[in-house]
Amino acid sequence: LVSVLSSAIIVYRLPWTWKCSKLLMKFIHAGLNTIAMILAIVSMVAVFEFHNARNIPNMYSLHSWIGLTAVVFYSLQLFLGFAVFLLPFAPVPLRAALMPIHVYSGLTIFATVIATALMGITEKLIFSLKNPAYSTSPPEATFVNCLGLLLVIFGVLILWMASRSHWKRPPEDNAKVLRPIGGTPEGTEAESTMTDGSNADKSDLRINSEAARKQNLKLDEAGQRSTM
Asked: Pfam families given for it (predicted)?
């Protein structure tokens, strides 16, 4: 979750991906999240099987509580992300309304995963290091403590990249992010089918098309904080 989920978070924020189509980036983002979810489920099964084989109680520590909570909410995040942002059925207003929630929940889940990893490695050290004890700072303790510091630095770096405006995907490359997949540019198809009609009707159509385009750009700008 730490490595693959972080890649999914910043996939839109990498400058060399800005030339790729938004649809391609959506599939890459969804694919990375799916891989992370599969690995998380495999890990959860492995933990429960290990505990049962060693007669270790399940779900008694804060590490296990927060870890399971992160996995449950991550599965909900993945399902809603597929249903709302990847499939072409959700209306644009719904996508715009859910985008801030999608962004905030994704970053919150990532921060929770970092916290769970820190608690997990500390718990493992306390249980495993008996002679010498963890409190005497043996080399194993120093190594894992350094690993924890690196996890914190890595998490802060990912959250910083996800929150900086200059890491955003340029708006001109992102103008169609909220348009349903397979849709046509605003006004193009409608104008081509109007072979008859007055100049006033055509003028109204152009005005409406321009208004729709500006509305989409505003909705897109509202979602530019998204890493999802």
From this structure: Cytochrom_B561
CA dist 100 and 110 (Å) reads 16
- Residue 213 pLDDT grade (very low, low, confident, very high; cuts 50, 70, 90): low
Please tell me the number of Cα atoms within 13 Å of 222 on its side-chain side: 18
* Those residues with Cβ within 8 angstroms of residue 36's Cβ, 6 or more apart along the chain or in another chain: 1, 4, 5, 8, 74
**Tokens in use for 123?**
């718990």
Among the residues of the chain, which ranges form H helices? 2-10, 22-53, 62-81, 92-128, 139-163, 188-193, 199-222
What pTM value is reported for the model? 0.72
**Number of structural domains in the chain:** 1
Phi-psi region of 182 (alpha: psi -120 to 50; beta: other; left: phi over 0): left
Among residues 129, 124, 148, the alpha carbon closest in space to that of 139 is found at 129
Task: Collect all residues with Cβ–Cβ distance below 8 Å to 117 and sequence separation of at least 6.
Answer: 2, 151
CATH classification of the domain holding 94: 1.20.120.1770
Contact 98, 105 (CB under 8 A): no
